[in-house]
Fold this protein.
Amino acid sequence: KKGVGALANNYQRGKSYRSDFFKCHAGIFHKYYVCSYCGRPLTKKTVTVDHLIPVHKVKRMGFGRFLLWINGIYNVNDTRNLVAACRKCNSRKSDKMGLWIVKGTFGRHLLYWILRDVLVVGLLIYTYITFHVPINAFLGSLLDKIKDFINTTM
């Protein structure tokens, strides 16, 4: 019974997971973090530490435990299952998995956000050079198309 109880504790929210996260992830210049889901810059005071694979899902689902296991993680509070998040994303993610896990897995790496921004800027420059469209006009028409799409789908 002692072994089963110890195993069950691996699926409970720990008391020190936040401090464990900061010990293993010093941040940029030991001060700044990036939300793993949206890329928003955060300070140590504003960052929330999120369980990538949610505690609730690990407690209730075999699939959550399976995801931990295939990543070599045997405790839901392992720092490899923790990511920096802004309050908004942490609240929106809640105990969801799906694409949130994909976003968090890639977004935990600063290089992902740098490459994403470089690609966006490159696309804007390419569009300007190829079609001779001023960037602000291009962005304005793109935003209009997105608004139209949202209005027609709702």
Notes: Strands lie at 32-34, 41-43, 48-51, 82-85. The first strand starts at residue 32 and ends at 34. Helices lie at 2-9, 17-24, 55-60, 62-70, 87-93, 99-107, 110-131, 135-153.
